[in-house]
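Dear Dr. V.,

Thank you for agreeing to look over these. As mentioned in my earlier message, I'm a first-year student in the group and I'm still getting used to reading structure tokens, so any feedback on how I've presented them would be very welcome. I ran two proteins. I've put each sequence directly above its structure. The first is here:
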Amino acid sequence: MYAIVDIETTGGYAANNDITEIAIVLHDGQSVINRFESLVRPVRTIPHYIQVLTGITNDMVADAPSFEELAPQLFELLHGKIFIAHNVNFDYSFLKHHLDVVGYELNCHKLCTVRLSKKVFPGIPSYSLGNLCRYFGIQIQNRHRAGGDADATVRLLEHLLQHNAEPHIQQFIKRGAKEQSLPPNLPKEQVDQLPYTPGVYYFHNQSGKVIYVGKAKNLKYRVSSHFTHNGAGKQRQDFLRNIYSITYQSCSTELMAFILESIEIKRLWPEFNSSQKRFSHSYGLYMFEDSSGYMRLAIDKKKKHMQPLYTFNLLIEGHRLVNQLIQRFTLCPRLCFMQTAPGPCTGTGESVCPGACEHKEPAAVYNERVQVALQWLEDWLPTFAVVDAGNDREEQSCILMEKGKFYGMGYIPAGVGITSREELKTYLTRYPENDYIRGLVYQYAERYPNKKVSL
């Protein structure tokens, strides 16, 4: 038994919006056997633009029954039926959410007439309800009203059934089928073609723009998991509504997928990604020579046109490193901007600073220690490669860290001996780095020391 449903609402997502009108048509595959239609009194007022679109005003619903009053009858009509709607996940999310709120658990097989129309009649320019009805000569009365749109969806379903839609319907609703959980505009074939490998996937909108980037240990499983629940929140509904296609890049290891995801989020800045968008190098270690000829180290916010010696996400990380250099190489806290308050230099009192800040120590002597400190820093920052499995037996994956920074990654022929980093770079693609990527590689190298090759 089919329950063809259409609703009008106060907004585009269930968690913070109400149903203002509902129509349910019960159909046995041959003909209509029952029909229900009612306005619904919402808790929220109906926005003006929706009143203009639907013609449903606040005055019209003022004396209508509330959803809670209608819930027992609605549940009885829907329970045990195949829930059908044009873009079914929208209507289903509203009814499931609002029934849950008043104590009814709705669990139905779903059938989307958008997806079914694409199966039975591929290649139509648009699968909106209005366009399909024009294409097939189906008249819609009371457009953008629940009853009118539900009746039009019934006639569309009957037209599809007359053109051998039944095998597709059985395929959609069989146990384990995931077709109806997919976004209405995403071809199932694109999900079916995803490999069972690590990689990065991209969701595109109607114009082809990337709106989300994700990483996966297993591309097929991870992408499918995005569509296993149909949340009632605005972001979730907007996200599903805007997915029209998927592309992907396979990676030989999960670590490479993590790194590539971070790079691509920062490159593409997708609308529906939130994590890592705010993650950037906030501070850098800089060196300059002052008017008296003394070389000075300073932690400052990262500057666009200056190359830092090292970068930090947190100011405290930079201060920790500079204090280490001060202690190890008897540098002046004042010349390193670690002491900014007036008064005697704390370094001279602790016998750390020989008095460079008071010009008791010649600039040439002090600068020599600064250079030694910077050389130590360069030597202390490690250069190594992480060598791991490739896409096949003929290659190995390789990630290069150079002087503590992520250089890039790629694939090298299996069995190639790594003799120098310059030779290694010829096989690799250079990428921008950030602290997140750097942390990933360090943690991985520490966890799997056998895959780390020092250079």
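The second protein is here, in the same arrangement:
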Amino acid sequence: MKYARLTKEQFEELHKEFINFLATQSITAEEWAELKSTKPEVVEQELDIFSDLVWEGVLNKVKFLEHISPQQLMLFRISQTHIDLIAIKIENTNIDITTKYGYKWLQQNIQDDSVVLYTSTKALKEDRNKDIFVLIQQGASITKGELFTYFSDLLEE
């Protein structure tokens, strides 16, 4: 397994897609029921293969990620060859940017001495999707890139 197995809820959400997947494997509903009772290891393999296929499809489309913690904002833009990072660290521990007040404070005080901005670019390894998956496992969320664009534009001013 390359990524992680989907959760029970995710499998339920993708029920129709999973049925289609089994059909492409020439596994009927009756055969699936039999496999579950007689060959649980085959069932496990099929669940893992389907999970990896779903993850590949999702990860192929990822262009932006963000990871927000009380004093840090990590914004990623992902191309086919590299990842651009905008990192914002708040050294004032009284400010929590995960709250509405804290985020508004950040927007209004971006030039404050307690706000540290970093940017960097990192070349992706041979497996782009695996690099993205690691960031997701570390707590990053897939986004449309609004925050990256907002702060990128601020940095260019």
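From my reading of the second output: The CA atoms of residues 20 and 128 lie 27 Å apart. Strands lie at 64-69, 72-78, 82-90, 115-123, 141-143. Does that match how you would interpret it?

Kind regards,
E.
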